[in-house]
Amino acid sequence: MAGVAVPPESAKPDISSSEKLKAALLAAERIAFSNPARGATVGTHFMTVIESLGIRDEVLAKATLARNGVETMRLVLEEGVDIGITQTSEILQANRDALAGPFPEEFELATDYSLWHRSDISPAVEDFIAMLISPAGREKLVEEGLMSPTDP
Questions:
Q1: Same domain, yes or no, for 128 and 101?
Q2: Second label for 17, Cα 20 to 30 Å away, from 69, 100, 116, 130?
């Protein structure tokens, strides 16, 4: 899931709608995100977002293209970048207080995975699957910036 990071001590912008996200991006002096030319999923998606919002040139004029999400978070936490765009899991790993939130629903970026297995799996694999889909496992995934699995 893609999200917006800000320095932990700064006010969190309201990014709950496309118009509010647009306003937050325009108000920021410096924005960092992963370089789409390097194949960065969030960086590529963010280019689509800013094009859809009609602010591509304005954002790119004040953007720093990072090598990856870890570098994006370093720029936010250590270099004074106002807004960083990366995976929410990378934001939470770097500093939970930096998460402003996920993209608005219309710009949500999520990857779906399917869990399939043979019928003759080991007890350890059965236990792992049970842990992933248990209430505690689902809660832990959400805490780490991932979406909770849906029921089979």
A1: no
A2: 69
Domain count, the chain: 2
For residues 64 and 132, membership in a common domain is answered with: no
What is the phi/psi pair of residue 4, to 5°?
A: -115, 130
Residues 28 and 97 in one domain: yes
Residue numbers of the domain that contains 122? 112-152
Question: At 102, which amino acid appears?
Answer: P
CB-count burial class (<10 Å; 0-12, 13-18, 19+) for 8? middle
pLDDT of amino acid 118:
74
Amino acid in the structure at residue 141: L
Q: How far apart are CA 42 and CA 8, in angstroms?
A: 21
23-42 pLDDT, tens digit per residue, is: 999 999 999 999 999 988 89
pLDDT, one tens digit per residue, over 61-89 is 999 999 999 999 999 999 999 999 999 88
